From TrEMBL:
Record-level GO BP terms: malate metabolic process; tricarboxylic acid cycle
Source organism per UniProt: Flavimobilis soli
Protein name per the record: Malate dehydrogenase
Its job: Catalyzes the reversible oxidation of malate to oxaloacetate.
Recorded family membership: Belongs to the LDH/MDH superfamily. MDH type 2 family.
Active site annotation, chain numbering: 187 (proton acceptor)
EC number, as in UniProt: 1.1.1.37
Signal peptide: none
Residue span, Lactate/malate dehydrogenase C-terminal domain: 156-320
Gene expressing this chain: mdh
Residues annotated as binding NAD(+): 11-17, 105, 112, 129-131
Residues annotated as domain Lactate/malate dehydrogenase N-terminal: 6-145
Binding site for substrate: 92, 98, 131, 162
GO MF terms, alphabetically ordered: L-malate dehydrogenase (NAD+) activity
Keyword annotations from UniProtKB, A to Z: NAD, Oxidoreductase, Tricarboxylic acid cycle
């Protein structure tokens, strides 16, 4: 790859930032043949901390890392960006109402979308990690009318990977022998991890799902509530695994998914599987020639239908709330 790639990471001084920057710079996201220009975006109070992380990046002497720049201005940080990882977000404070949370994040993702619209490279790809990821991605996309909406994704890859691991354990097989799990809907507790089309070693996910008690009382809640379980155990939220998921999402988006396998990503709905247009929802996807395609033709049983619909309904509720605030 002759052209260096400009990668902007927001929230760069945060936990996920600390997990992801070194992996990007070492070539794990875009390949070892690609030179990286890293841009770190932070709020002014955290610029000093980002400078510390940049010192450590220097000290790795990564030979693929061409430059590191630090900004507190999104317009500058996104100028010429090829890959934007929107990690920094406003966490829900104690006693904060959902509308306040959505409004605070609108104040971040609206201007970032505008800055991407104004200055990004024509091939820009945007992955929103900061929560509420799907709705933040929708807000950013709506503020970037000149960028194809398909270039805005929300991350559900961590949920997908959690589901792969849980299934491997259940089936007693290595995780590499599990494939074609799907996360549907919102990256929230309402998400639906679907095993019905999965392969788990020599068995089918549908066969494992015959044990409905396991499915509804163990597997689904374990995947959907894994973030809370990690906070409870670690005293801090999942950061290394979130960084890993973001690396894998972008890698597969740019370089393609393996033949015969799909992954999960929050992409703009297009009516597929009865999910109306207008939200960024998680679907089974493959990537070909740098673009996601929603896997078609999967049979959706009643069990799945009900759960997909519930999570999608939540996405439309979030959409209605931000519409009311004038954010989309
Ligand atoms: P953190 O609190 O350690 O770091 C967030 C960083 O973002 C802070 O350094 C903060 O200064 C910065 N920031 C806040 N507003 C900003 C702005 N307007 N521009 C640039 N930077 C800004 O949080 P952590 O653990 O790194 O998580 C980041 C986000 O990722 C959270 O919203 C979290 O909920 C979300 N997350 C999403 C996951 C997913 O699967 N989609 C998984 C795990 C976390």
């Amino acid at each position: 790859n002759a052209q260096p790639v400009t990668v902007t990471v927001t929230g760069a001084a945060g936990q996920i930032g600390y997990g992801i920057l070194f992996r990007i710079a070492s070539g794990q996201m875009l390949g070892h043949d690609t030179q990286i220009r890293l841009r770190l975006l932070e709020i002014p109070q955290a610029v000093r901390a980002a400078e510390g992380t940049a010192m450590e990046l220097d000290d790795c002497a990564f030979d693929r890392l061409e430059s590191i720049e630090i900004f507190d201005d999104p317009v500058k940080a996104f100028d010429g960006v090829n890959v934007a990882l929107l990690v920094g977000a406003r966490p829900r404070g104690a006693g904060m109402e959902r509308a306040d949370l959505l409004a605070a994040n609108g104040g971040i993702f609206g201007p970032q979308g505008e800055a991407i619209n104004a200055g990004a490279a024509s091939d820009v790809r945007v992955l929103v990690v900061g929560n509420p990821a799907n709705t933040n991605a929708l807000i950013a996309a709506q503020h970037a009318p000149d960028v194809p909406v398909e270039r805005f994704n929300a991350m559900t890859r961590l949920d997908h990977n959690r589901a792969l691991s849980q299934l491997a354990r259940r089936g007693g097989v290595p995780v590499r022998d599990v494939r074609n799990v799907t996360i549907w809907g919102n990256h929230s507790a309402s998400q639906y991890p679907d095993v019905f089309h999965a392969r788990v070693g020599s068995r089918s996910g549908a066969e494992l799902a015959e044990d409905r008690t396991w499915l509804t009382e163990d597997f689904i809640p374990t995947v959907a509530k894994r973030g809370a379980a990690i906070i409870e155990a670690r005293g801090a939220s999942s950061a290394a695994s979130a960084a890993n998921a973001a690396i894998e999402h972008v890698r597969d988006w740019v370089r393609g998914t393996p033949e015969g396998e799909w992954t999960s990503a929050g992409v703009p709905s297009n009516g597929a599987y009865g999910v109306p247009e207008g939200v960024i929802s998680s679907f089974p996807v493959v990537s070909r020639d740098g673009e996601w395609q929603i896997v078609d033709g999967l049979e959706i049983n009643d069990f799945s239908r009900e759960r997909i619909d519930a999570s999608v309904a939540e996405l439309f509720e979030e959409r209605a709330a931000v519409e009311k605030l004038g954010l989309v």
